[in-house]
Amino acid sequence: MILAPRLALCLLVAGLCLFQAQGMTSSWDCCLSTKDTPLSLYRLPIFKGYEIQNFDKGCSIKAFVLITRRDRKLCYPLDSKVARDFKKALDEKKARNGIKVLRKRRPSS
């Protein structure tokens, strides 16, 4: 009967370690620096969206993050011309296309 409390303790410790590890990975996706290199809007089709990186996500800098269709991330300063232009263009593109809702297929009888 001593085995049951030990097993419970081991499971608790393993769960806490897993919880700790998951919390730490969020900062790995942060931009560590930004570059203000020019980027033309004709490249808009290769981007699927953007994120605004803030301190509340565990990141050390604020940034405008462009996300490509291949899930690559480009980091720009929040106040850059690229950030303003692409934010406006991607918001307009999203408004034009609307939100696409996938309908569930009915099972054929």
TrEMBL record:
Single annotated GO MF: chemokine activity
Cited Pfam families: IL8
Highest taxon, organism lineage: Eukaryota
InterPro entries assigned to the protein according to its UniProt record, in alphabetical order: Chemokine_IL8-like_dom (IPR001811), Interleukin_8-like_sf (IPR036048)
Transmembrane residue ranges: none
Annotated signal sequence range: 1-23
Keywords, in A-Z order: Cytokine, Signal
GO biological process: immune response
Record-linked SUPFAM superfamilies: Interleukin 8-like chemokines
GO cellular component: extracellular space
Protein name: C-C motif chemokine 21
Natural source organism: Crotalus adamanteus
